[in-house]
Design brief:
The chain crosses the membrane at residues 20-44, 90-110, 122-143, 149-167, 179-198, 204-222. It is a multi-pass membrane protein. It catalyses: a CDP-1,2-diacyl-sn-glycerol + L-serine = a 1,2-diacyl-sn-glycero-3-phospho-L-serine + CMP + H(+). The longest helix has 26 residues, at 60-85. The two termini are 29 Å apart. 70% of the residues lie in helices and 3% in strands. It is built from nine helices and two strands; from the N terminus they run αααααβααβαα. It has helices at 7-27, 31-54, 60-85, 92-98, 100-113, 129-141, 148-162, 181-196, 205-230, and strands spanning 123-125, 167-169. It has one domain: Four Helix Bundle (Hemerythrin (Met), subunit A) (Up-down Bundle), CATH 1.20.120.
């Protein structure tokens, strides 16, 4: 069916919408919610490319849309979160420093997009903006237990690591049972939110995204098992 071709793009736009909501929650002082929304964006981002390959719906439009969504959700949203939680005390200078993160991230994405199509899928050149934004979200979520100087150092290091030439192992070739990093982090953070008693104010998007992602992982696991038996 033709409509199935648009499913991956819907997940990509969901990723972008999570970034927008994260910025709004951060501006309203709901930092835990803002961080969790970035992690939900990670879930959706991990699904769109795989769904595109499953449905044979790869397109140039989808690739460009994915990059634009990543800049917002894993570049702009984490930088606003860092500003409102850490850098606000430095005034305009803090805002300028926080704004460096999406600049480095956008450059990293552009460099990736024009890279050779023969580039190895076993590693990335530089830290992906998705991982960098997710790390900042986790640092903010558990910020009460981490000294601000450590967060600042990690923030600065991630900016430069994104545009570095370091080879970062990719999870694309890792079997799905081991590809639980994102869902593990997400569920851990969800339990943290419930433990702190803030779940009542959390956006209902979490109750939609979580079962969809778990169902998707289960489907991939079953499909991989069948393929292994056939081989």
């Amino acid at each position: 069916m033709r409509w199935t071709k648009s499913i991956p793009n819907m997940f990509t736009q969901g990723n972008l919408y999570c970034g927008f909501l994260s910025i709004g929650f951060a501006a309203n002082g709901q930092f835990n919610n803002a961080a969790i929304l970035i992690l939900i964006g990670m879930m959706l981002d991990s699904m769109d490319g795989r769904l595109a390959r499953m449905l044979k719906a790869d397109s140039q439009l989808g690739k460009e849309l994915d990059s634009l969504a990543d800049v917002v959700t894993f570049g702009v949203a984490p930088s606003f979160l860092m500003y409102y939680t850490y850098f606000y005390q430095f005034g305009l200078l803090g805002l300028a420093v926080a704004g460096l993160f999406p600049l480095f991230g956008a450059y990293r994405l552009a460099r990736f997009n024009i890279g050779s199509p023969k580039q190895s899928t076993s590693y990335f050149i530089g830290v992906p903006i998705t991982a960098a934004g997710g790390i900042l979200a986790l640092l903010t979520l558990f910020g009460n237990h981490i000294p601000q100087i450590i967060t600042t150092v990690i923030f600065t290091a991630l900016c430069f690591l994104m545009i570095s030439k370091l080879r970062i192992p990719s999870l694309k070739e890792v079997p799905l049972p081991k590809y639980g990093t994102i869902v593990t982090l997400f569920l851990g953070c969800l339990l943290f939110i419930i433990y702190r008693g803030t779940y009542s104010s959390f956006p209902y998007l979490i109750y939609i995204a979580t079962p969809i992602y778990i169902a998707y992982l289960a489907y991939r696991f079953v499909k991989r098992g069948k393929q292994s038996k056939q081989q």
